[in-house]
């Protein structure tokens, strides 16, 4: 196989560092293994962030997400681990990762983890008439 999973997250310079703007990346095919049974867990991830100096390169993000496919993780742990790795690589102003796991034993699990840089506050929403 020419492409392999990787834990390396590549970044590039934020093209508009003077502006708060939101990047949303939908990842509909996340998989990992249940650490108790070894059966696959499937989830859709939604990554939302306000970049500071760096943005994540999408191919490296795809390969990073793929790297969890054969690893056992609890939903809560893997969501927070992915957030921690992305925050470590990007140091964003704000980042939220929402992980919506498919049904397992009649239960759906959604885990939401957030990071907020010290001193950063979201801009006030504009309400138009």
Descriptive report:
With 129 residues, this protein is an alpha+beta fold. It has one domain (23-116): GTP cyclohydrolase I, C-terminal domain/NADPH-dependent 7-cyano-7-deazaguanine reductase, N-terminal domain (GTP Cyclohydrolase I, domain 2). Helices cover 19% and strands 38% of the residues. It has helices spanning 58-66, 75-90; strands spanning 11-13, 23-33, 40-50, 54-56, 94-104, 107-116. The strands form two sheets. A four-stranded antiparallel sheet has the order 2-3-5-6, covered by helices on one side. The protein has a two-stranded antiparallel sheet with strand order 1-4. The protein is globular, with a radius of gyration of 16 Å. The mean pLDDT is 96.
Uncertain runs with pLDDT below 50, 5 residues or more? Answer: none
Which class in CATH terms?
Answer: Alpha Beta
- If you compute it from the alpha carbons, what radius of gyration comes out, rounded to the nearest whole angstrom? 16 Å
In the CATH classification, which architecture applies? Answer: 2-Layer Sandwich
Our count of helices gives 2
Main β-sheet, spatial strand arrangement: 2-3-5-6
Q: Provide the β-strand percentage band.
A: 35-45%
Distance between the termini: 55 Å
User: How would you characterize the largest beta sheet?
Assistant: 4 strands, antiparallel
Number of domain units: 1
How many individual β-strands?
6
How much helicity do the residues have? Answer: 10-25%
Mean pLDDT: 96
CATH homology superfamily name: GTP cyclohydrolase I, C-terminal domain/NADPH-dependent 7-cyano-7-deazaguanine reductase, N-terminal domain
CATH topology: GTP Cyclohydrolase I, domain 2
Class computed from helices, strands and strand pairing:
alpha+beta
